[in-house]
Amino acid sequence: MYARRLVCVAAAFAFAALGTILVPAAAAAQQQPYVIQGTVRDAQTLQPLADVSVTLRGTGRTALTDSRGQYDLLIQAPAGTYQLQFTLLGRRRVTQSLALGTARAIQVPPVSLELTAVALDEVVVTGVAAPAERRVLGNTIETVAGEEVSGAPGASAVDQALQGKVTGALISEHSGQPGGGVSVRLRGTSSILGGAEPLYVVDGVFVDNSNAALVSIGANAGRGNAGLANRLADLDPADIERIEVLKGAAAAALYGSRANNGVIQIFTNRGRSGDAQVRFTSEVAANATPKRYKLISEPLATIADVIWGGADSVGATVTRTDIQDQIWRTGLSSTNRLSVSGGSPATRYYFAGSYGYEQGILQENDYERLSLRANVTQQVSDRIELSLRGSYMESEANFVIGGEQTSGVLTSIIFTPPSVDPNFDEVLGRYPYNPILGVNPFDVLENWQAPEKVNRFQGSAELRIQPLRNVTVRYVIGLDDYRQASKLLEPPASRSASYTGLIQNPIRFSRQFNTDITVSHVGQLSPTIGLTTTLGFRYTNDRGEVVSAAARDLPPEQTLVGGATQFASQSISEFRTLDWFLEERVSVSDQLYLSGGVNLDASSAFGTDQRWQLFPRVSVSYVLGETSFWQEALGGTISSMRLRGAYGQTGGQPPGLYSRFDNYFDVAYGGLPGLVPSNTAGNPDLKPERQR
């Protein structure tokens, strides 16, 4: 109830902010806006540059150049002298004065940008309350361009594509199966019991990257039931514009108790003003194992052949069977993508769709994904901008039980003497049982089933309002909703003649909702001292539900939940967080930057007396290389020099969302229901683990 009241207060705050701008916006709409046009080009080749950010400082208005290097800015502002700024990653920033007078159409002379090795002018938004240039920040934020992600060879998922592109990050795959999950560690393992995966934010949406398996197959049985796939595989790498990665506590402090393991924020492609750009790409690839297991090939029996392979004695002649060529294959994959982007200065759009199919290097193992995306930005007026972004994805994976279980295909190859022939026995009329493991690998490939189907929607709406020239209100609402259905079928008599079979059909429903409100004010105390003040509020609600139906003692040919012994289970989890944050940035002569902020965070998982937690952060950045002293003394030798430092604190959510309570579990006793207490007592003073 308390959380709902705070949400209502936040909503009222948003509508109040909207109301404050209606009158100014209506009055401004009566005035004819300025139309600023121009071209940006390469300083060496004089070729046009696309995706250059063109900003009229002091107005909060920004435009991007199209493929011809052209831009259009619609500005409703008082007459006067302004600074027009041009920035592009890998290029030196250019700022020039622009006078707005009686003429409403202004043509700016062509602007040339030079290459630079140090990207201090790149604008980042992750970990800061308001967008800021990299030169302002005292902490480290790594940026990975979308071209590097989509162009990563053989990477069908975003986290796979980040391998080798983020300094110090440990990125490893859970399995080699198509659609398989990837583990990302930005700051190592910071908790004994808690998770180590970073927080993922896609276009302002807090997304679920769960890798908890619904059924135990392959390598997950002894690894905490870690899934063969995680949900970041649902995002098409080709839709990404850039990725910002935060590893330090000072950088991630804005996200409070959810940022203990770092933050990865993903921005998807947006439309550019100009003619419609249609792009179609098709990729074809092949995967194969470069080697095979080295199995014993001598035709003389060993003790293992005597015990399990039916040999008469050690040294007797036996026939060896290497089934690896029947298990492995060359997996083919193809991905086709179509995108359309373009628009006018007022309306920009990006629509994309993709279909991919990938075969695994194990027989019967494959993965297919259909993805649709739509991003639309509308300049409602000179003071109001609305952005709508959404994606829908369907995927289906057919997993194969691989290893680290007695039923694994690879386990059978490794632990079974090659004198045992697992091929179909015409006399028996079935695949023979493995004398060691029981399960026949060919039977697993042909008759066992382990599919996984996912339907997912992610969407966000962002409203930017500028009630005053130096005040910007930003409201974001995001939703991540998916349904994940898994299945495991072990047919009767598949493990032994007496085995009666097993089927499991668990389904996970996940919904994550978040809403953010920020108000930023940009001002000048003097011609050399600038201030940027930001106040914000954030609310998140995560809800998960798993419903499972299963059965044993299956009749022949049974593929649905049925049989003599049936059972079902259901679990529901939900937790909420509330955040208030304040940040102040001070710039001195555009060379020295001081930043400080606090994040007041509450979580439903914390104890009652520990509900609210404070996470501070401070940073300093000094661009020494642009001072007159440096330019005169060392400018010819060292072209760029910046001193920076930062301190901050982050927290982590407890591994159990209800660990502050004494928990009980359902049991049956004598045919009657009962409760059994957990082995771990509840901790009413539970609070977050902190990182500095």
Name the descriptors.
single chain; 692 residues; mainly beta; 5-stranded mixed beta sheet; 9 helices; 10% helix; 44% strand; disordered N terminus
Query: In percent terms, what proportion of residues is strand?
Result: 35-45%
- How much helix is in the residues? 10-25%
Low-confidence stretches: 1-30, 219-225
- Number of strand segments: 35
Largest sheet: 14 strands, antiparallel
Mean pLDDT: 82
**What sort of overall outline do the alpha carbons produce when their principal axes are compared?**
elongated
SSE class: mainly beta
Topology:
Elements: H1 2-29, E1 34-42, E2 53-56, E3 61-64, E4 70-75, E5 80-87, E6 94-100, E7 105-107, E8 111-113, E9 123-124, E10 132-133, E11 141-145, H2 146-150, H3 158-161, E12 170-173, E13 182-185, E14 199-202, E15 205-206, E16 240-246, H4 249-252, E17 263-268, E18 274-287, H5 303-308, H6 324-327, E19 331-343, E20 347-359, E21 366-379, E22 384-398, H7 409-415, H8 441-447, E23 451-468, E24 471-486, E25 488-490, E26 502-526, E27 529-552, E28 565-588, E29 592-603, E30 612-622, H9 628-633, E31 643-648, E32 650-652, E33 664-669, E34 672-677, E35 689-691
Parallel strand pairs: 1-7, 1-8, 14-17
Antiparallel strand pairs: 1-4, 2-3, 2-5, 5-6, 9-10, 11-16, 12-13, 14-15, 16-17, 18-19, 19-20, 20-21, 21-22, 22-23, 23-24, 24-26, 25-26, 26-27, 27-28, 28-29, 29-30, 30-31, 32-35, 33-34
